[in-house]
Amino acid sequence: KQEVTQIPAALSVPEGENLVLNCSFTDSAIYNLQWFRQDPGKGLTSLLLIQSSQREQTSGRLNASLDKSSGRSTLYIAASQPGDSATYLCAVSIVGSQGNLIFGKGTKLSVKP
Amino acid sequence: DARVTQTPRHKVTEMGQEVTMRCQPILGHNTVFWYRQTMMQGLELLAYFRNRAPLDDSGMPKDRFSAEMPDATLATLKIQPSEPRDSAVYFCASGLGQVSYNEQFFGPGTRLTVL
Questions:
Q1: What is the pLDDT of residues B13-25, one digit of tens each?
Q2: How many CB atoms lie within 10 A of CB B4?
Q3: DSSP, res B97
Q4: CA-to-CA dists, residue B16 to B57, B66, B80, B81, angstroms
Q5: How far apart are CA B60 and CA B88, in angstroms?
Q6: Residues A71 and A30 sit within 8 Å (Cβ to Cβ)
Q7: A46-100: per-residue pLDDT in tens?
């Protein structure tokens, strides 16, 4: 059974720092991995989607990497800002499914001014 | 501005009452997913549809939950009778295309409280 783990559960950094969020999954047979952002009381916003054949994706200050063989992904946030404060979730779509996502519990990020 | 919409945004009801949640997927998307989020379990899949056909609803308590897509623009999730343990945020997501390239876009959720 696929399990997705995110470490740390919470992270607090001062504004301007570069930071890395980690995601690991137990079964490497995935179609893709998606990173989401969730603000308190809100829905999920898709940040980056990495296909299983890709190694990384970039969008602005965000860079996500994927090492399928080791079951790991990282989300790198450059020059963090207070507006980046949110919970970040990673999710994998597993081979043999119909595209449904298996989610981690998330990392709650707080960027202090 | 293409978005997934969900109604109602908030629902408070008493145990035993019927609850219906609605979702309008992004126009043209052919897959719809229902997820439930709780503090303890995180996000869990309840059911999903492709081209309006239900593909898997193994995540739902069958005796009380039902999911349907009456047409391509509407998905519904119904709980009857509701119980306090059903209190959670229910998200709908939609996507387009092949299974392996299916990026999902989420609605704002319905926050359900069952007293």
A1: 999 999 999 999 9
A2: 23
A3: S
A4: 22, 15, 7, 4
A5: 14
A6: no
A7: 999 999 999 999 999 999 999 999 999 999 999 999 999 999 999 998 887 777 7
Beta carbons of B95 and B34 less than 8 angstroms apart:
no
- Residue B101 backbone phi and psi in degrees, to 5: -120, 30
How far is the C-alpha of B72 from the C-alpha of B95, rounded, in Å? Answer: 12
Q: Is B96 on the interface with A (CB under 8 A)?
A: no
Closest Cα to residue A93, out of B90, B93, B69? B93
Helix and strand totals (H; E) in chain A: 0, 11
CB contact under 8 A, B31 and A98: yes
The sign of the torsion formed by the CA atoms of A46, A51, A61, B42 equals positive
Q: Please give the structure tokens belonging to residue B12.
A: 């408070």
Distance of CA A58 to the CA centre of its chain: 12
Closest-CA distance of chain B to residue A11, Å? 18
